[in-house]
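Bumping my old thread because nobody answered last time. Still need a sequence for this structure:
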């Protein structure tokens, strides 16, 4: 079939999108998007070609229907009800049968981190960092709860109601906790769809999250992962089409933007907190990666908020 999900894909040819069909750009700090399975699939004739997202996390719930699914180097034939968890940089493609029903939830990594962090439940982040395709559930109530949660999130998402943001955040956190529980309790699904180095890449991302403020050198990350710097560069190029330094800098820039927007700290104080002892160097770093000075970024967002 000419439009089928291919069985072999050249990693260098895999497009990187923000949402499918939209060329990749840095996700907004609090980005969340929910759509029905059919809305985007209909537009692409129910054939979502292999692609990946750099800093977006997707959770797909298929209540009815099914079809071939590609998750990194795994090729599966899935039928609903099925839950699919796709961390950033994982290659994925689908060819659902026309009429399949469900939802696609897409979130910025930063939104998930801000949601999970205050809960203190590290297991949620660990579980959601793994690829998952679950087709069997411990009981009927588990799939019913997932369907209810997606429906509730969708109801809040499409209507402008009082306390909308807080309500959506609450439902999403409950959904993430439910997925973590299901992943821990179910050994009969398809949890082992990780492959081709994706687990190692996820460990690198976790190390970046833990040590980017300490300004670790690439050699320190490589040594912790028991890899050479060259192997780490190849790993990052494969999964993110970026070098380790670029990934570290992207995380630094994200935190800088957060602090400029959500704290009253001076530009110099923000830079110092992120390991830049020289404020001028921090400003040059920010201009290089954001295209404007930290102060210009802060003021532009203040104008939008006003």
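Sorry it took so long. Here it is:
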């Amino acid at each position: 079939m000419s439009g089928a999900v291919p069985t072999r894909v050249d990693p260098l040819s895999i497009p990187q999108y923000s949402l499918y069909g939209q060329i990749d750009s840095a996700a907004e700090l609090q980005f969340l998007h929910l759509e029905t399975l059919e809305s985007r699939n209909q537009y692409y004739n129910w054939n979502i070609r292999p692609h990946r997202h750099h800093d977006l996390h997707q959770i797909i719930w298929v209540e009815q229907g099914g079809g071939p699914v590609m998750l990194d180097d795994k090729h599966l034939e899935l039928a609903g009800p099925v839950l699919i968890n796709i961390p950033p940089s994982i290659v994925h493609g689908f060819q659902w049968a026309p009429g399949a029903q469900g939802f696609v939830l897409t979130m910025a990594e930063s939104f998930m981190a801000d949601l999970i962090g205050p809960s203190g439940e590290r297991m949620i982040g660990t579980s959601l960092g793994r690829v998952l395709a679950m087709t069997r559930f411990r009981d009927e109530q588990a799939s019913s709860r997932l369907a209810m949660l997606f429906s509730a999130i969708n109801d809040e998402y499409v209507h402008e109601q009082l306390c909308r943001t807080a309500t959506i955040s609450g439902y999403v956190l409950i959904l993430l906790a439910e997925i973590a529980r299901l992943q821990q309790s179910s050994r009969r699904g398809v949890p082992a769809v990780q492959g081709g180095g994706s687990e190692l890449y996820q460990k690198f991302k976790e190390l970046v999250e833990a040590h980017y403020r300490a300004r670790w050198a690439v050699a320190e990350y490589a040594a912790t992962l028991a890899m050479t710097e060259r192997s780490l560069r190849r790993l990052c190029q494969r999964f993110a089409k970026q070098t380790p330094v670029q990934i570290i800098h992207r995380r630094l820039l994200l935190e800088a933007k957060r602090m400029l927007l959500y704290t009253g700290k001076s530009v110099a104080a923000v830079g110092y907190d992120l390991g830049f002892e020289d404020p001028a160097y921090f400003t040059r770093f920010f201009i290089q990666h954001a295209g404007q000075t930290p102060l210009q970024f802060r003021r532009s967002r203040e104008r939008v908020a006003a």
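The CA atoms of residues 127 and 183 lie 7 Å apart. Let me know if any region looks off to you.
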